[in-house]
Amino acid sequence: MLGQRVREERLKLNLTQAKLAEDIDVSDGYMGQIERGERNLALDTLVRLANRLGVSVDYLLKDSVHSSDDNILQQFRQLTDNKSSQHKQMAIDVIRTIFAHLDK
Prior knowledge:
The chain is mainly α and about 100 residues long. It is built from 7 helices and no strands. α2 packs across α3 (about 30-35). It is elongated, with a radius of gyration of 19 Å. The two termini are about 30 Å apart.
């Protein structure tokens, strides 16, 4: 999916693989491998690519990164760190309300 999104955005900008590769300082061959999903990107390369294409890293990675339940719980813990018990309870109440609405 990442490679497909890169290709779609590159074509919207009427860029060749070679030009995009040059702009983000990678080889033509590497760019082709990225688009075909054959290579992973270093974070700095991913950021340069997103910036050049004018899209967010989130957009490029959408559907490429899968969260496990443990990861989701860890994110919630990070959000609620240093919060009062009252604020934590309010967050839980909001989540309950959202889930009740979604279950309808």
